[in-house]
Amino acid sequence: MDLDRGQFQFFEPPEHEIKHINNLFRSNYGSCTPDPELISKSLDSLALTEREIQRTSDDIHRLESQLACLKAEKRGLEWRAARYRSLLAPIRSLPPKIITLIFESFCSEAATFTETLWSPPAQLSHVCSGWRELVRGTPILWSSIHIEDAVLYHPSEKVISMLTTHIHLSRQTPLNLSISMSGPGAVDHEDTARLILQMLFGESRRWREVHLDLHEFFYDDLDDLRGNLPLLQVLYINDWDNVPDLHAFEIAENLRGVYLSYAAADLGLPWSQITEFSIGSASASEALEGLSMATEAREVTLYRTNLDYLPDEFPIVHNLNSLSIIVDRWDPDFQQFFDWLTLPNLTSLSITGAEESPPRAFTDIYDDTFPSFIARSSCTITSLSLIDLPLTDSAAIVLLSALPSHFPNNPRAKCRNPSFPKHHPHQRLLQLAHYRTPQRALRPTFSLYATPTSTFSRPLRPCDVSC
After folding, report:
1. Percent of the chain with pLDDT over 70
2. Closest by alpha carbon to 239, among 266, 212, 201, 210?
3. Which Gene3D superfamilies match (predicted)?
């Protein structure tokens, strides 16, 4: 009899034996009429059958053991075949310069010294001796380090060894560092934290981009950095305002980008060199004070500024070209900045809702603050972005209508649906795109095309309005 579509077979006894057994069951044999001869024959048949069962089981175990051995042998052969294929893999024919570029892409994220110790170049060096030699001979792969005080809960010997390897193998390559030693781990393991900082501070002449978030009792250790930062280009300092008169970074001839949390006053920096300036989580007064200090900054970001403390003197005149204002739900009214600033050289303006807490509503969006700012500054904005803001179409148009260089007063200007993209090759294009709207459904994109007879002070770049 076949079972499961013939995959398994049940072998029946011979027909005469089946009939004999069935006749025995149909007989009147019972406990009250014992048949000694029948009992004896049944016992013999049972013993014989059980021996056959045992023999069959033994054969099954033997065959299963052979099958397991064959499977293990197959796995070993597959392992060998995979290794031989690897020896013939195309990547082994790539020149070292190409492989190095691939390694640089893999190691684009810094080695992390946090709750987890992770070093991309160390992982690559474990693949084979050729990769190990190439990785250890490429200093740039070891030159980015991100370290937090959570690493102090690892055995100090392991951390110091891994950090020493990165410092040694990076040789003289400029370093990109992110150092956060402001949490409880830095307090609980101050000695180890100071040792790590001393190792990194000792390489200050190689610093190129540095993020610092230090507990206040570490700031005295920064004094030795003064005058030893010849390569420093970008500096991030978080929560430093509890430390008065910080002048460690005052001499840094290549410093161009500064990104601060909280105040900028009393921070010694080569302010006349700074071309990119960002300040966040500060009061409006502190943010504008920092802007006044960065007189040569051309790209400025004001991030989640607190509007509780307003500046005493305004408007501030500045020659920046690009301004980004990032607002959150607690202080969403970005238009107040246009009362405080006069920016005659402004060409790019971006107003964005903070990703983690975007604003939900605005007040006074329809007042004349922005038009007054444009008139007072006499600037020509050629790039405008309004992103993740709860603006209605009408509110966006109020802002856009203050930009006369974008919208010429010409009756031949036309508003068309983008599904009809044909227009004169010399027309300027302004796109208003609603990418997402928190409080209502998506709205269609539309485009404004100005005819060639319209007059513009300069060609327009695409202008995105994302609500």
Report:
1. 78
2. 212
3. Ribonuclease Inhibitor
